[in-house]
Amino acid sequence: MVAKRVQEKMTSLFLLNCVDLKSLPPATDPWPPAAATATATATTVLQDVLGELSDATAAEIRTDTDAVTLASTDFGTIVSSAPAAVFYPSCAADIAALVRASCASAYPFPVSARGCGHSTHGQATAAGGVVVDMPSLGRAAARLAVSVEGRYIDAGGEQLWVDVLHAALAHGLTPRSWTDYLHLTVGGTLSNAGISGQAFRHGPQISNVHELDVVTGTGEMVTCSRDKYADLFHAVLGGLGQFGIITRARIPLVPAPARARWVRLVYADAAALTADQERLIDLRGGGAPVVAGLMDYVEGSVLTDYQGLIGSWRSPTSSSAFFTEAGAAARVVAALAEEAGGVLYCLEGAVYYGGAGDTTAEDVDKRLELLLRELRYARGLAFVQDVSYVEFLDRVRAGELRLRAAGLWDVPHPWLNLFLPRSRILDFAAGVFHGVLRRDGVGPVLVYPMNRDRWDPDTSAVIPRDEDEEVFYTVAILRSATTGDGDQLRRMEEQNAAVLRFCEGAGIPCVQYLPHHATQADWAARHFGPGRWDRFVERKRKYDPKAILSRGQRIFSYPLA
Ligand code: FAD
């Protein structure tokens, strides 16, 4: 019955989908193949495959406009690329059956896992193929199991980190490494890296995984870890969905603190901010600076739009967040901004305490006294809040709800995230924060350092190459095009291109985080570089030889070149 419905709708939908496809240049071959007869054959093959699957698995398959439209785009709302169908698996075996069916078919069609579609450039789309709706794995049961004795949580790849947090906290435990926003899926962030202010100490989320269940591009279901199928384990972590679909991750847990002392310090220049950030994240021991390691979380941001809702959406309270609490201080901040040419910086840090952790409130008071004495922020501009651990970790949610209420969440997000070497961060600040970006605020710009030795070079994640530099920076330019006219979006995209041109011209070797590139040549040269690209391709041949998975990333096409 379902199979028949699928077949009836396929032909008309397929035509509709072809019209919907927007103008990203293909990595190499598009799917379905372009020639008219081949297209017709490919469509028939896909109809047959889906028809058989809907009889053989418990998965639901939908081809209606609502399902297809939702799976055609993402948080970025910049790219639209329609699948032929959306697949709602009830278990990992359903996904394996779908991938095997694609593999076995004469026209291996694209299959992309979609967590929440929080990507910005169509990475979770599958043009003309099948999008796997990962949340449907968790619909029947929560798929979160804590082992108190083993100090880990088994989380379905579709689970949201906020739910992982609450499940672990029920046992007084917590993961160590986070993203700023917790309403992202486990599989989605592990396919990138998963970074936030804890990464300097604990590494990204991909450095905090014991074991994975994966459905490979050949439809095999494999449990892998550092000891078992280690190459697949490392390939999938940071692998941009290219080698397997993560259906379960085992994440280590530690005793959970109860509260966070949350600090924001205003700086008039980038040199003072970055010097302090680097002192705070220095974990070498020995002659390390007196403030080294005193914070559990270290981030920072560029303040150009510190009064606006969009500019402060990552903050817990409305408008200018911390600064409005002290009206006089807000005026001082504004005056300092004027003096500094309109660009200020903010160091954001937190110290955890209480609960099952071993830091007490008295320890935090002492630490804070030392920090506020030693750090070189603009005196008088230190803002401190005491919040629960959950409030701190889930801090971005309040901003999301405010933006949703104002109709400013579902707007285009031309985000650009970069990793760059420590030695060039001030050149970057001068050229970009005080140059290219001065013209358009409209969104937070984050800047914070991380320690290279907390990243496992065997994973697929790409960080700056220069291994002589222990520290590298992330810069996240998280802008929203809010005016509704295409001009603002185009201007922001042009500015992103100008940022990349500036780096190239100034010889700043940056790589993108949450990367997007238009052609395979760009992926090879600009993102991976020699050596790393060869390994990535070799892994692709091994685990997804028909280039079925996550083709929305626009890295590979079928057949593999
Ligand atoms: P999707 O967009 O659904 O998918 C992303 C890619 O991963 C696609 O290629 C998809 O095919 C693949 N994929 C999805 N699920 C799986 C799976 N189970 N197995 C294999 N591949 C899969 N990132 C950070 O690191 N730190 C942050 O602080 C941070 N903050 C963010 C805040 C907001 C508001 C947003 C929108 C994003 C943020 N991100 C952050 C980026 C986020 O980590 C990525 O967008 C991530 O991909 C989101 O997960 P998702 O499940 O929505 O992915």
| Residues in β-strands, percent | 15-25%
Low-confidence stretches at least 5 residues in length (pLDDT < 50)?
Answer: 1-28
CATH first level of the largest domain: Alpha Beta
Q: Estimate the helix proportion, in percent.
A: 25-40%
How would you characterize this protein structure?
Belongs to the oxygen-dependent FAD-linked oxidoreductase family. It holds the Pfam family Cytokin-bind. This protein has helices spanning 2-20, 36-56, 65-70, 92-104, 161-169, 186-190, 199-202, 230-236, 270-280, 322-325, 327-339, 361-374, 389-393, 395-405, 425-433, 486-506, 520-528, 532-543; strands at 60-62, 85-88, 111-114, 130-133, 144-147, 152-156, 173-174, 211-216, 221-225, 244-252, 254-255, 259-267, 297-303, 344-353, 382-388, 416-421, 445-451, 471-477, 511-513. The chain has 561 residues and is of the alpha+beta class. The chain has 3 domains: 53-137 and 541-553, Uridine Diphospho-n-acetylenolpyruvylglucosamine Reductase, domain 2 (2-Layer Sandwich); 144-255, Uridine Diphospho-n-acetylenolpyruvylglucosamine Reductase, domain 3; 260-512, 3-Layer(aba) Sandwich (Vanillyl-alcohol Oxidase, Chain A, domain 3), CATH 3.40.462. The protein has an 8-stranded antiparallel beta sheet. A 5-stranded antiparallel beta sheet has the order 5-6-10-8-9, with helices on both faces. Strand 8 and strand 9 form a beta hairpin. Helix 1 packs antiparallel against helix 2 (36-56), helix 2 (36-56) runs antiparallel to helix 4 and helix 15 packs antiparallel against helix 16 (486-506). The longest helix has 21 residues, at 36-56. It starts with a helix and ends in an 18-residue tail after the last helix. The model is unreliable at 1-28 (pLDDT under 50). The structure holds flavin-adenine dinucleotide. Flavin-adenine dinucleotide is lined by residues 74-75, 112-119, 123-124, 134, 157, 179-181, 184-185, 187-189, 191-196, 240-241, 245-246, 514, 550, 552-553.
